[in-house]
Amino acid sequence: MAGSINGVTGMKIFVDVNAVFLHRDSVDFRKSINGLSVIVEQSMNLTLYDSSLFVFCNKQRNKLKILYWDSSGFCLWYKRLEKEKFKWPHKDSRDVESLNEEQLHWLLRGFDIHQLQTHKTLHYCSDF
Fold first, then answer.
1. Mean pLDDT of 89-99
2. What's 124's DSSP letter?
3. 2-53: per-residue pLDDT in tens?
C-alpha cells in the first residue's frame, strides 16, 4: 500500500520507479505506445528503457497517459477524469519536468504539485 493523502490510502500503482518525467505540452491522445515513444526519445531526449515513467496529458487536461517499460514490454496506463481537470504544470522554457513518485500521486489525486511542498530534508553529519 502507498502512503495516504487526506486520510485516503491507495495501492501502489507503479513499482521500482527510477524517475518520473512530465511532457509539458499537450499530446494528441490518438497516440499510443509507438507515438508516445517517439516523443520520449525525440522531443524529450530521454531513454525509454530505464524504469522511468513518462506522463502525458491531453489539451483539455482531463486525460492522462503514463508510458513505461517493465522489462518485458511497454505498458500504457490511462486515466480519464469525468468532471475535473488535472492541475497540469504551466509551460515554461522546459519541455520536460521531473517529478518524484509522491508528486505523481498528488497529480493523479488532483493536487497542484507546485502548491504542495514537503518539509525540507535535513542532512547532518557527526564531527566525532
1. 74
2. -
3. 444 444 455 556 667 789 999 989 999 999 999 999 999 999 999 999 889 9
pLDDT at residue 113 in the model: 67
Cα–Cα dist 56/87, whole Å: 13
DSSP 64: E
Residue 33 CA, chain-centre distance (Å), reads 16
Q: CB-based contacts of 112: which residues, under 8 Å, 6+ apart?
A: 87
Contact 57, 90 (CB under 8 A): no
String of DSSP letters for 67-93: EEE-SSSEEEEEEE-SS----PPPP-S
Q: How far apart are CA 121 and CA 62, in angstroms?
A: 33
CA distances to 30, 64, 101 from 35, in Å: 9, 15, 24
Query: pTM of this prediction?
Result: 0.76
Cα distance between residue 15 and residue 17, in whole Å = 6
What's the CA gap between 68 and 75, in Å, rounded? 5
